[in-house]
Design a protein that fits this description.
Elements: H1 3-21, E1 28-35, H2 42-59, E2 62-63, E3 66-74, H3 79-91, E4 97-100, H4 104-117, E5 121-123, E6 138-140, H5 145-158, E7 163-169, H6 172-187, E8 191-198, H7 206-215, E9 219-223, H8 229-238, E10 247-251, E11 271-274, H9 283-295, H10 303-321, H11 328-335, E12 339-342, E13 345-349, E14 356-368, E15 371-383
Parallel strand pairs: 1-3, 1-4, 4-5, 5-6, 7-8, 7-9, 9-10, 10-11
Antiparallel strand pairs: 2-3, 11-14, 12-13, 13-14, 14-15
Helix pairs in contact: 2-10, 3-4, 5-6, 10-11
Bound molecules: P-hydroxybenzoic acid.
P-hydroxybenzoic acid binds near residues 125, 172, 173, 226 and 253.
Length: about 400
């Protein structure tokens, strides 16, 4: 056997053993929360950790007789680091659940570990459609890019937008957004005239925006991951694209609540589609936003925070339902089919796909109480991920 195969076999054996031993060791229930706490995706880590801690503060740290222990690890959003941390958490710490995953490559790198060790993997952030198909132990509480992009491609042609250039980050979620937006727009009689992709690491939007200016489409459709939206907005405005008559439309990742308020009045009127806005007008959300802001020095929760908060809910309820047993397969079964009222609205964990079914909202950036918000003006209810192949 090659050395690498030997190591892989040894790791697989250790993972399987660890998975079997995780239960009933002591009275703790361990959640390994792997997040980008530093680096380009650090805002995602900060938001999700804060939300998970808020959930625990509000719901207690003892569930079905088990003391919940949250172990937070920083993967700096490098998938090799995510994989190593996930392995250590399963083998050494004997965690009952793996959770977090700020970007798609991190979620994908962990999938084989979840499968081999039979550990539920709760994806709270990453949003490429195919993630849930990478392991039967994956459950998602974030969203998918096809889920939110299609709504905007339905809205655009009804609002005078027929010719669109797309600009996405060049990896899983961006390619999903580009593909599903374009095919739906075409179905609706519109057209994507050019599809531009920017790299994930250190993107420079300037040369791409210049190309868009020259092409003069009715609108530019953008997806960039949470944390990169402010840079796109700034350069879009600096280049006077709006004054040249090019509208900016985007997934809500761009007008991210974590950054929106610092984007300035140039962001006013930008239309996006997404599953969560801090301005969502429900009593559940008002309570959530108030508690989150209070606990985090006025930080406004964004869609990542909600993915983390709801992910904790899914884990807590599964533990309750299984009477504190903590066995991976039992927990997974108890995660499937959960229906509840999230700060984003009603949600459902589809038992078949283990993916989240939720409302998608059309929103416009408006000023409320001297602050910028994504104000919802339309809703498409109970949207399943349109990207699933089965
Ligand atoms: C992802 O990598 O899947 C991802 C990250 C940030 C987003 C959306 C998707 O805002």
């Amino acid at each position: 056997m090659h050395k690498r195969t030997l190591i892989q076999t040894a790791v697989a054996a250790a993972l399987l053993a660890a998975g079997g031993l995780a239960l009933a060791q002591d009275n703790t229930f361990k959640i390994g929360l792997i997040l980008p706490m530093t680096g380009q995706q650090a805002t995602t880590g900060r938001q999700i950790e804060a939300a998970a801690r808020l959930y625990m503060a509000q719901n207690g740290d003892t569930v079905a007789g088990k003391k919940i222990q949250l172990i937070v690890k920083d993967d700096t959003s490098l998938p090799d680091v995510t994989r190593r941390l996930a392995q250590e958490l399963v083998v050494n710490d004997k965690v009952n659940v793996l959770a977090g995953f700020g970007i798609t490559p991190s979620a994908m790198a962990t999938a084989p570990i979840a499968t081999q060790s039979k550990t539920p993997q709760v994806v709270m952030a990453a949003a490429t459609s195919a993630i849930t198909e990478a392991s039967p132990y994956i459950v998602r509480t974030s969203f998918t890019l096809p889920q939110v992009s299609v709504a905007l491609a339905d809205w655009a042609p009804k609002n005078g937008i027929k010719k669109v250039v797309t600009l996405v980050t060049d990896y899983g979620p961006g390619i999903d957004a580009e593909k599903f937006f374009a095919s739906r727009l075409q179905f609706n009689g519109g057209q994507v005239t050019e599809a531009l992709r920017v790299p994930l690491r250190n993107p420079d939007f300037a040369p791409f925006l210049q190309k868009v200016r020259d092409a003069k489409p009715d609108a530019l459709f953008v997806f960039v991951p949470s944390g990169a939206g402010a840079a796109v907005m700034k350069q879009f405005l600096e280049r006077g694209m709006d004054k040249a008559g090019i509208k900016l439309i985007a997934t809500g990742d761009v007008t991210d609540d974590d950054q929106l308020n610092d984007m300035g009045d140039g962001a006013l009127g930008v239309v996006t589609s997404h599953h969560y806005s801090a301005a969502h007008p429900s009593a559940t959300n008002k309570k959530f936003v108030e508690a989150f802001t209070k606990a985090n020095k006025n930080l406004r929760p964004n869609f990542m925070a909600v993915g983390g908060y709801d992910g904790m809910r899914v884990i807590y309820e599964a533990l309750k339902k299984t009477g504190g047993k903590g066995d991976g397969d039992a927990l997974l079964a108890a995660m499937k089919g959960q229906i509840f009222e999230s700060p984003r609205g009603p949600v459902f964990i589809d038992a078949q796909t283990r993916d989240i079914v939720q409302n998608v909202y059309l929103r416009k950036v408006e000023k409320k109480d001297a602050q910028l918000y994504n104000v919802e003006f339309d809703v498409i209810k109970d949207v399943k991920d349109p990207g699933k192949t089965k």
